[in-house]
Specification:
Blueprint: H1 2-9, H2 13-29, H3 43-63, H4 85-114, H5 118-129, H6 138-145, H7 149-174, H8 178-189
Helix pairs in contact: 1-2, 1-4, 2-3, 4-5, 4-7, 5-7, 6-7, 7-8
Length: 193
């Protein structure tokens, strides 16, 4: 959400963080999230709309002046940074996916730590997270973690399945209908749940 606010409103990091915090505090105080109706669309679309409405209201409020409130001030530093709705939507979708995957990775880390599988988690991170763009060879990981190459393959197979499971559990918790869940899973994972 912070990245969306920074992009759409050309905010500094601290201002975007403050606005996101204010949004959630306001949403909880006013019980906005209770108004979500799954029949009208996906939860993340509802959340994005609420965020954009809140940010717009806050932006308009911050521009009001005792005198000269009818004037529109445009900073020359940000004049070329106005975002299109499509860019903001794409950024929101990216941040949504990043948030779901980050939560899933945190849950995998906790699971591995609790079950004595720290090396499994470390191999997964080294290969599929840190090495996502250019994955290291299994032999290199085997040498790095002092395990047989076949064990690297086993670790990755297990961790990928558990990571996918955590991603699906996270999506299940964030969606309100089976159809929305299936659509989000298809979008995030590239296949049906």
């Amino acid at each position: 959400m912070i990245a969306v606010l920074r992009k759409q409103w050309s905010l500094e990091m601290e201002d975007a963080e403050d606005l996101a915090h204010d949004f959630f505090a306001h949403a909880l105080e006013r019980e906005w999230l209770v108004r979500y109706d799954r029949e009208k669309g996906r939860f993340r679309t509802f959340l994005r709309r609420c965020l954009q409405d809140f940010a717009s209201t806050q932006y308009e409020s911050s521009r009001r002046l005792k005198r000269g409130g009818h004037l529109t001030a445009v900073s020359l530093d940000h004049a070329g940074n106005m975002s299109t709705a499509a860019e903001v939507d794409r950024l929101f979708d990216q941040e949504w996916a990043r948030s779901v995957l980050t939560l899933s990775l945190d849950r995998l880390r906790e699971e591995c730590g609790a079950s004595g599988r720290q090396t499994t988690f470390d191999v997964f991170v080294a290969h599929d997270v840190d090495g996502a763009d250019e994955p290291p060879r299994y032999a290199d990981l085997a040498a790095r973690f002092s395990v047989p190459v076949t064990q690297v393959a086993n670790y990755l197979h297990w961790a990928r399945n558990r990571f996918r499971g955590h991603a699906l559990e996270t999506l299940r918790a964030l969606t309100t209908s089976d159809a929305e869940f299936r659509e989000e899973a298809r979008t995030l994972l590239g296949r049906d749940a």
